[in-house]
Amino acid sequence: MNRACEKTGLDTSRLEKMIEALELQLQQRSAREVSSAEIGELVLTQLKDVSEVAYIRFASVYRQFRGIDDFVSTLETMNREQEHLAAVS
To answer: Does the reported pTM lie above 0.90?
Structure first.
């Protein structure tokens, strides 16, 4: 998360609060073990609301983007979701 948020203007204290919230969310689960996939998706959910750039950076590593098509696909999905939210509001 630190690397994904570098040079995005995201305040360090906000990043720390996001991490604390994620940790708390995971601790409140009844399951003792949590997969790295679950953690990755939770991080992406947090980053999507805070910084599109950080989201794309994290997603590119977490989802192992192999080329420009992966970036474009993710950006198109984000745009569709934003358009849907705008239409609902």
So the answer is: no
Which SS3 state, helix, strand or coil, does residue 63 take?
A: coil
Per-run averaged pLDDT (10 residues), the chain, 89 residues: 90 92 89 87 90 90 89 89 83
Domains in the chain: boundaries: 2-88
Give dist(CA 69, CA 53) in Å, integer. Answer: 17
| Sequence-ordered list of residues with C-beta below 8 angstroms from that of 34, at least 6 positions apart, any chain | 26
CA distance 13 to 38: 24
Separation CA 54–CA 58 (nearest Å): 6
